[in-house]
Structure formats: structure tokens, C-alpha cells
TrEMBL record:
It comes from the Bacteria. This is YjiS-like domain-containing protein. It comes from Reinekea forsetii. The lineage of its organism: Bacteria, Pseudomonadati, Pseudomonadota, Gammaproteobacteria, Oceanospirillales. Residues 23-55 form the YjiS-like domain. InterPro entries: YjiS-like. Pfam families: YjiS-like (PF06568).
Length: 68
């Protein structure tokens, strides 16, 4: 997460107010997490090894709910 987004999240957390754009951005991040996790779970072991990941770690990550 870049520093601008992180700073904005801190402001939102402190103020407790959310705009429609904030909600839209959160939904987009959740969708991206879900997409990446599903993609990684489908990769063969030799490609995971090539990018420095182990099947077990990928499966644990893929099992997480989309909001984590």
C-alpha cells in the first residue's frame, strides 16, 4: 500500500466517515486480492518455486477470506 492510501486510511479510521469512493476502493482491493489468490493457487509448483513461493503458503493465503 502506498503512503498516500495508508495516510487516507488512517484519516478515515479516525473520523469514522466513508464516502462512496472509499467503499468503491475497498471493494476493488478485495476483488484484486481474491483474483490474485485464485491465480496463484492455479499455478504449477515449478512456477511458484520460480517466484519464491511454496504451495503450502499459497494454499494458506488462498484460503483466507477476501477481506483479509
Amino acid at each position: 500500500m502506498d503512503s498516500i492510501s495508508q495516510g487516507k486510511n488512517e484519516v478515515i479510521a479516525k473520523s469514522g466517515t466513508y464516502t462512496l469512493i472509499d467503499v468503491w476502493l475497498v471493494l476493488g482491493r478485495w476483488q484484486e486480492k481474491r483474483r490474485v489468490r485464485r491465480y496463484l493457487a492455479r499455478l504449477p509448483d515449478y512456477l511458484l518455486k520460480d517466484i519464491g513461493l511454496e504451495r503450502r503458503a499459497v494454499m494458506l493465503e488462498a484460503a483466507k477470506p477476501f477481506w483479509r
